[in-house]
From TrEMBL:
This is Hypoxanthine phosphoribosyltransferase. GO terms for molecular function: glycosyltransferase activity. Coiled coil: none annotated. Residues 13-159 form the Phosphoribosyltransferase domain. InterPro entries: HGPRT, Hxn_phspho_trans, PRTase-like, PRTase_dom. It holds the Pfam family Pribosyltran. CDD domains: PRTases_typeI (cd06223). Pathway: Purine metabolism; IMP biosynthesis via salvage pathway; IMP from hypoxanthine: step 1/1; Purine metabolism; GMP biosynthesis via salvage pathway; GMP from guanine: step 1/1. It catalyses: GMP + diphosphate = guanine + 5-phospho-alpha-D-ribose 1-diphosphate; IMP + diphosphate = hypoxanthine + 5-phospho-alpha-D-ribose 1-diphosphate.
Amino acid sequence: MRSEIQEVLISAEQIGEKCRELGTTITNEYDGKFPLLIGVLKGALPFMADLTRAIDTHVEIDFMDVSSYGNKMRSSGEVKIVKDLDASVEGRDVLIIEDIIDSGLTLSYLVNLLRHRGANSVKIVTLLDKPEGRKVDIVPDLAGFTVPDEFVVGYGLDFAERYRNLPYIGILKPEVYQGS
Ligand code: XMP
Ligand code: MG
């Protein structure tokens, strides 16, 4: 699998350090508020696991699975809820945990939905921010790393469902996706 990666952009150690940093920030900001952390499946799974364990106050966790009608590498903005929350967000302080914010279409849909459902506050925590891809005006409240406008994989991010299990973030060799 490593031979299919052109370049490692962010190492496992850098990700670990960033999770601890973000965890401390969230602890300080949400201590005593029992926030609801919503992981967006499947990409946010490793980030959710590492981030939540770096938070030193009580949190509730839940997951949503949404799919956007788009091609393999970009979302279209039309979002379908594949798995909804178990918890009610009414009156809750919500943190949406995402792997990457690119066009921003998925997250702007989710933020609006959760506000509409009566959340007290809705904030976005993303491991990666790709600001050059933005199609709607949305800024994450907390972001781990800014990445260039390239397709990245690893640490939850996939290409055709592969590479999610890489412990780092990397760029695929062009021949890997050109062949598909
Ligand atoms: P939007 O465009 O709605 O997209 O902000 C968020 C979702 O698009 C996918 N995405 C990527 N997936 N490498 C990936 O593996 C990327 O570089 C990339 N850019 C966007 C991803 O599913 C994310 O949740
Ligand atoms: Mg995703």
